[in-house]
């Protein structure tokens, strides 16, 4: 397993993770405390889960910018359903189901316009990014959606043997989607479509369906995130919930070693990428760097990650 | 007597201590056409890249017109009068024809603005010389592959050069276009220009070259008059052993009709095409580029819409809406554009082999062991040279990539195989192998539709040949009539009533 991890696309990011871990441990004695490490994991789980879906989109040669506002939109609708049904266990189940359906439908909408409509994914999802945010603001009158009762919030704060539920769900999905990418026809087809669409089409692969499905997976992952996050916060803020999630998700994918050009990629790399981002944030906090500067650091890390990938791709060719 | 233009002394080239060219000392005469032949990896391309200043040799020197040449400077070589037509296109697809021809070398008016009229007029002259129907203001993207090649040639002959180097210029050209190119080469030669000509097509080398140099594994083998060197002998020296015959013996047995195509038409591509294909048969499809052969294959594969006619596979009607339908019906297609639509160069050999047939390996999880077993089977059967089944295809030579492409087509266990230019850009040995494999597959009962622009292989492989011209099947030849003259009569419209 360890050997396998070190070979593929995520080798570099794994090394970066270890280096960063050691540096952080020396930089602050507080870093190595279990609670702090769990906090980092919890913080990155939400956008990380979206990153898992995003990886399929990027490997297939696309991008999805709408995931942040989609998170707010689906979270808001989930709370509306929950409140309408009284906030009990059944209401939570109903909110979950509605969220998943809405996530699948939103992803389907993005995907169908990209594939059937032949509009560039950047443009389509830039459009839906604005649409989802605007709908959320409209429904919520630019205010907050607050969940009724304690059950929802209890679920959001819950943990299993001390590990937050969101972290467990994140890793469970990472495992499942890694299998989907590496060991099923759909995963292989996604790589083929991203590597060369024409070869894929000539090889009897349904290019449109493959791409479409990658957006649906992302929509589903957004739905899971939206429910868990709104439950943890017990609310959704129509103007800033899910803000910058597209950036964090894409960053996790790229830092993890999946090239933006698609054709190949790694799911465990997304987990590594997300944790790297979380650790950097954590360290900046502990060193009391201004929160306003954290975006600068994140931006530089993304650029550096792509720059290093570019270099190593060149080496591989020579 | 004959004047020497280029003298190379002990040219040796190593890439990270691997010697790809060893001690080449030759003289190239002024006004001759020198052919260089050898298998892929023999060092031909390296040699001409050194001649044109793209690579500096590890050891050795070159005299050009009696003067020592600066070996590290492509620009100096260009100024000295060396121009190179590279094997791969170097055209900017968003610019048009004349802009490409004058790229980096633009004609300018006195004020510094571009002299568009002058460049267009010069381009028109160049195209007239090449007898090519290419409009100076056409965009590169809209040109056929053959037309692009003509633009590439025009770019090289734009400046009156002393030494013109051509690296496999005829791979994508039809016989007719090749004749025009050869005419031009003879004309250049008459004007005293020296031409170095690299090709895999020995018949052409024999026809056009004055002398031929053979390279093998980076070593100089011989340099002789083309007249004194028979084609079989060229092939033998290239490979270093006897190639009993380039083409395997034809076999006669024919089984039942597997594929019936009746009056098939596709708007703007071809119309009213009918033929039968039997088990064990290799049916050749010949014709000039643009005659509609590939388009017929694409229609059968469900990649191209049809407007009329029908297809029956083993008696059952097939209306293919996508390649998946055709594959399910038992048809496989080996595309003419290996890297563009045939194989995924960034994928492992294994993943290419199972790309179309992946359903057989996934239930629902892909059985990696079974994939490896099947890949090992093809590596063995098709003699694929690869460091490992997990190696990325981009690390393999063109010939081995093509064998992987063949394996990929065969792994769906088709009854009917359509091969489109199956030996394009592969070396003699791989060609020989591919011919033998296709013949063996046909002997096992596979029905093969064999599309090729190389008359030699059409004739060598097919029992029956359909000739297409301008989207119609204009002739069907069998037996003794499968020969170069007959095919060209139909392909060019002398026979066939069109």
Can you put this structure into words, describing what you see?
The complex is a heterodimer of chains A (about 325) and B (about 500). In chain A, about 75% of the residues lie in helices and about 5% in strands. Chain A is mainly alpha-helical and about 325 residues long. Chain A has a single domain (about 1-310), classed as Orthogonal Bundle (ABC transporter involved in vitamin B12 uptake, BtuC). A two-stranded antiparallel ribbon of chain A has the order 1-4. Chain A has a two-stranded antiparallel sheet with strand order 2-3. In chain A, helix 2 (about 10-25) runs parallel beside helix 13 (about 265-285) and helix 4 runs parallel beside helix 6. Residues about 315-318 of chain A have low confidence and may be disordered. Chain B is an alpha/beta fold. Helices cover about 35% and strands about 25% of the residues of chain B. The longest helix of chain B has 16 residues, at about 175-190. Chain B is globular, with a radius of gyration of 24 Å. The interface of A and B includes residues 183, 184, 189 and 195 of A.
Assembly level:
heterodimer
How many distinct helices of chain B?
17
Helix content of chain B: 25-40%
Give the proportion of residues in helices of chain A. Answer: over 70%
Order of neighbouring strands in the sheet with most strands of chain A: 1-4
Main pleated sheet of chain B: 6 strands, mixed
CA-CA gap between termini of chain A: 28 Å
Number of E strands of chain A: 4
Overall spatial form of chain A:
globular
Q: Measured on Cα atoms, how large is the radius of gyration of chain B?
A: 24 Å
Largest beta-sheet characterization of chain A: 2 strands, antiparallel
> What is the class of chain A in the CATH system?
Mainly Alpha
Low-confidence stretches of chain A are: 314-318
Our estimate of the beta-strand percent of chain B is 15-25%
* Number of helical stretches of at least 4 residues of chain A: 14
Q: Which structural class do you get from the secondary structure elements of chain B?
A: alpha/beta
